[in-house]
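Case study B.
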Amino acid sequence: MPTAVSVLLPLPLPAFSYLLPFEQEKPVLGARVVVPWQAGVRTGIVVNLEEVSATKALELKELIYPLDTEPFILPKHLAFLDNLAKSSVSPPGQILASLLPIGLNESLVHEVKAVAGAKVEHDLSDWSGVQALSPNQLDFYRRQGLIRERVRIEEPKVRVLLPFKKPDEALKTKAKANQLQALEWLWEVERLESGAELARQADVPESSVRTLVKNGYAGYEDVPAPLPALPNYPPKQLPSVAIYAGENHKAITGGYRAERLASLIPLLQGDLKKGKSVLVLVPEQFILEETASYLQSLMPVQVLSGDLSDAQRKRFWQELPDNEPLILVGTYLATLAPLGQLGRIVILEEASSSYKLQSGPRLFISSALRLLAEHLDIPCMLADSLLSPEGLNHVGEKHCLYLPSPERRLHIADLSEQSNWPLSSDLIQVLKQVKERGRRAVLLAPRRGFSAALGCSDCTWLAECPNCDLSLRYHQDKRQLSCHQCGFNMAIPLECPNCQSVDLGAMRGAGTQWIAREVAKHLPDFPIYRYDADERHDLSPLLEGEPGVVIATTALLRHPPLPDVSLLGLTLFDTLLGVSDFRAEEETLRLWLQLAELSPNARPLTLIQTFQPQHPLLDFMRAKDAEKAMKFFLEGVLERRKRFHYPPFADVAKVQISAKQELTAQREANWLATALKLHIKDKGDVLGPSAAPVTKLKGLYSYQLFVRDLGHKGFETLLQPVQAYHGSARVRVDVDPRDIGKFLD
DNA sequence: GGGGGTAAGTTG
DNA sequence: AACTTACCCCCT
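Model:
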């Protein structure tokens, strides 16, 4: 019986079947194979093999060539991929494309040869490069069965300068002293990447090197590229901790980031001793570097992230199965890393919103890896300053290790009674103390730029984005108004377009520029730094202990910690809570806990400016017994989530309907909501549709609705009407949205 | 009748 | 995702 091979390509499509040529060995599951695709070839992964009838075989195109004899993706991962595809309602190929960092886009040497006796227009009697044929001809010959094809991975080559001849008498004249010097140096170092480099190193003009090459003493050659070095990070000492996680723990919360990691060390060492590797997942590059720095002096560590070059990732992937047990610290790109003896998965900062992939299948990587651990039947450890309610519910209270939380000093400044906006008199007073004592302070503003808006003081006019329902952010330094969503920029108008008043000024929330200006007013001659996406000042004087104030956005959380910060100011607490998401409070609390990481060795006074000093969240932050407060907070969240049927007690998917015309978006959203309600019946419910929080964005009007899966039936079936939708609006789905108002591109 | 743009359909 | 085909508008 002929064999059909199902091949998954890194495209947003399901797997496709190809016929295995009768003379070819059956490929193993998870191996890479090259298959014909449109008028060329593509590399995919073998996900299934099945016997088919001879008639069925006739309909299939032939597989071209296997690239591997061993699985490139572990067969255990294939079922996991399939499961992820179903739960995220996206094609399996799309999951593969977003999780596999290498291997499927290799450059290939593709050759063709005419079958014996075939009449073809070209001379294809021997293997020749496919570029001799036009794509149409290739397709035609394929269909007629006139050619055979073969491929191999193109070895990465680099062009180098090599010495060809030893210096001879002809070079030993005074006029050719430079050439002689260069050639002798080249023989000394054996090879160099360019003639220019030789000229630099031998300290001769480039023309001398050119002459050497012209006269055949040296020349360029393509040689196999050397293996790239794998990254290394400067070692760092972990703090000591009093409690360690054991086998019965499934989550760690509280403490500093480094303490949570330190509490895991005996567990990790135990895994390695048992011959098991551990996958340590991180949400961002800076945590990857920090984690690798801490671990590498204690145990064998490898890293994988988007910061590695293609060549580095390739080397990493190839060597991984042969390595001794190790700790792999990686971002989501390490999900499918072929660790043979994987014994545990650790998810650091498990609740981090950075784990939400912003495109493709929009996976939430924490959930995906919890699923992987279940598939592999290995333990999974969660760690975060404040566990996600989902995480806590999953592991259960009694499997949770609480580390003592850092002690905090908190002062709340009520902005409603203040006249000197955006700084309260309390903040000004402590800032003055910081200056007098030559200390360091960090002020966090809710946004970059000067202010949230520019408006007219005489009427109600506010500058708004022409593409979005948002006010334009005022950037004083560039004398510009810009939209932080769509990137629209314009110059500041001279007068109000509404009432022609010239009294235009900053309105609403103060950004880093505004705060910096106010601080400068109150603290003349004190060093002021800014740290946001627009302006990243060099903070090394502060690292060395010089005094100063940093005005920053949360971008500062990705900067190495500053020593002995004595004041931490949150200039507008309210914006954090203003987010229209059921996770807003939880995220705010987590941010508050993360702020302690800005200066872990100090105990800075945290000053919070707010218009709502009675907000219940502040009570949790003020509580003396932090551990108890956190437990109480999470219990409350879970209780409400249960009562109102929110995750983890129901699965939620967002459906976004967008169109250029607002009415179209609204009509199609209503239509889709009705279709969904009829389809879902009592298996779940449909909330909405309602206009998206920012209804017009990037020129599109969006409506959104939420589908709740109350019986864990899976969105694969519940969202069927969405899958089948072919109307005039653009529809996007986000399963498990982490920010319910966020626009889906 | 064709250049230039977008929308819709197909890929094994 | 990448690519082809269909279709529309505008201009010569």
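The mean pLDDT of chain A is 90. The remaining cases will be described in the next quarterly update.
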